[in-house]
Each structure stands twice: as structure tokens, then as C-alpha cells.
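Structure first, sequence second, as always.
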């Protein structure tokens, strides 16, 4: 089964830095956090996974509030910490009866470092490339139970494993639009006999200024239209050392969205829609991911 928790995490890693600039909704940006400054991002995420090819009619819903805090250590180095609170519910049929498995709580903490390795600036535009590396600590509960016993792994708030992630992001920013691209990889480890499949993602984003159409003195805010594409490949999960044939696969998402940008804060909304899902076996497919977010620079 493709893991909803991974989707929620990936939505929170995008952090804009400067005032009055747009940024991707579903992934990172190479724009810096100013030295000694902070960026706080709160994202409310709702994920629906009900594309079930089996008679069990699995229907999984995940509601999460993802908090991300970034700090500018220097002009080139920024550190980020991300902590989600999730409420996960799985409805399905078993033995001719409907059952519900659910859990809520804080998930795993992710700490990330991003360094600007290349930049080229000119009047009205900038090009930056920033590699990043991070670690996910097992801070969330991973042994939650109900009257039926231990909850399935995808319903657990935490994974129980120490995982590592890394990649690089490129940003090309002008006064009228911004283009971002990211390549990332997350290597998952085993915990309690379960090892989620490693995840590789290729992301792209275009943010285009819709209003005002021409810049002038005294403009207090900007409205950007956003369109993003995310190609995500998850390897098969492993249970007690054996591959789970009904897990993993490749999905292409398209995310249309809007951002309202001021000098100190940004509000945004987007809907992540799977346009192609090539999953293994009876892995549960995704229907959509809706996101509403707020970013503050201080």
C-alpha cells in the first residue's frame, strides 16, 4: 500500500524565504532563509485514498496539520524541522461486516539541512541550486492498538524507524514567474518487522503572477497561479524480510493552486490529483490531496 504519511510529509517541505515571492506548494525551493531569520509554515492537509480494486472496499482518510519551522544559519545554509499531527481512519469490509481502524497523534519529526551550492543573479532574476539532506526520527507512536489488536502499519501515527532523505532543488525566479524543480530520495529502514519501500520523486512547479499584471510603487500584495507535477515511485514494502506484492508503484500527480503573497505572509491552497497510477497488485490508490497553508516570515 502506498503510504499516506509520505504524501503528507512531502507537502510540508516547501519553504519560501524572501518577502513577496511565491514558491512551490508540494515540495522545496532553493530560495534562502535570511540569516538569523525564521520561516513558519502551517499546512492543513486532507488525503483521500479509496481507489480499492478488492472486495474489502478500503477507504482511508488522513487529516493532518503539518508544522514546519525554518532558520537561516547563514546566507547559504538553512535548517528546517517538520512535525505533523495526523488523524487517520481506515474503513473496510471484513467477513461481510464493515469495520473502522483509526488513530490520531503526532507523527515522526524530520530535520533537514539545505545549502545553496550555486547561484547566479542578474537584475530581476536569480538562479539557485541547493542540495539538502535530512533524517526522520521515530517520535510518533508506532504500536497503537484498538479492540481488534495492533493497527495496520499505514494507520499508525509514526513509523518506528530512523529514515534518511536527500536530494537537490533548482529555482529560477523572475519578477513575473518562478520555476522550481526537485529530485529527492528517501531511504526507509525496518521497524517491528516492517520496512516501507524507498521513495524517489521528481517534482516541477510553475508559479505565474496573475495580479497585478504590471508592477508599480505601493503594490501591497500579489496573486500567483500555481501548477505542479510530481512523479513519485515507491518500492515495495517488506514484511518480515519479504516483499509485499500489493505495495508500491508509480504515480503522477498534477497540482493546480493559488497563492496570495504579501511581504510577511503567504496563504495558499492546492489540490493534488493523480492523473496516472501504476500500482503493484492490490495497492490502495489515491483519490486526491487537498492542502491549505499559511507561511510567515519573521
Amino acid at each position: 500500500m502506498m503510504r499516506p504519511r509520505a504524501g503528507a510529509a512531502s507537502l510540508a517541505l516547501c519553504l519560501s524565504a524572501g518577502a513577496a515571492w511565491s514558491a512551490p506548494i508540494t515540495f522545496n525551493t532553493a530560495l534562502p532563509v535570511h540569516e538569523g531569520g525564521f520561516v513558519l509554515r502551517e499546512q492543513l492537509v486532507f488525503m483521500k485514498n479509496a481507489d480499492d480494486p478488492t472486495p474489502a472496499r478500503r477507504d482511508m482518510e488522513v487529516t493532518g496539520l503539518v508544522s514546519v519551522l525554518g532558520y537561516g544559519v547563514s546566507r547559504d545554509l538553512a535548517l528546517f524541522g517538520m512535525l505533523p499531527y495526523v488523524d487517520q481512519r481506515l474503513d473496510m469490509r471484513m467477513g461481510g461486516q464493515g469495520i473502522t481502524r483509526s488513530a490520531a497523534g503526532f507523527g515522526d519529526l524530520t530535520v533537514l539541512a539545505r545549502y545553496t551550492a550555486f547561484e547566479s543573479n542578474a537584475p530581476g532574476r536569480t538562479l539557485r541550486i541547493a542540495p539538502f539532506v535530512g533524517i526522520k526520527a521515530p517520535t510518533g507512536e508506532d504500536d497503537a492498538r484498538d479492540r481488534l489488536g495492533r493497527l495496520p502499519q499505514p494507520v499508525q501515527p509514526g513509523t518506528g524507524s530512523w529514515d534518511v532523505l536527500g536530494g537537490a532543488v533548482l529555482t529560477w525566479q523572475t519578477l513575473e514567474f518562478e520555476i522550481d524543480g526537485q529530485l529527492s530520495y528517501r531511504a526507509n529502514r525496518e521497524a517491528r518487522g516492517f520496512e516501507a519501500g524507498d521513495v524517489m520523486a521528481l517534482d516541477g512547479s510553475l508559479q505565474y503572477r496573475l495580479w497585478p499584471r504590471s508592477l508599480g510603487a505601493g503594490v501591497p500584495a500579489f496573486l500567483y497561479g500555481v501548477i505542479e507535477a510530481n512523479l513519485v515511485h515507491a518500492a515495495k514494502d517488506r514484511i518480515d524480510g519479504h516483499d509485499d506484492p500489493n505495495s508500491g508503484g508509480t504515480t503522477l500527480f498534477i497540482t493546480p493552486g493559488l497563492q496570495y503573497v504579501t511581504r510577511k505572509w503567504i496563504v495558499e491552497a492546492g489540490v493534488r490529483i493523480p492523473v496516472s497510477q501504476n500500482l503493484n497488485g492490490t495497492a490502495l490508490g489515491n483519490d486526491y490531496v487537498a492542502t491549505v497553508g499559511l507561511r510567515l516570515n519573521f
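Margin note: The longest strand covers residues 77-94.
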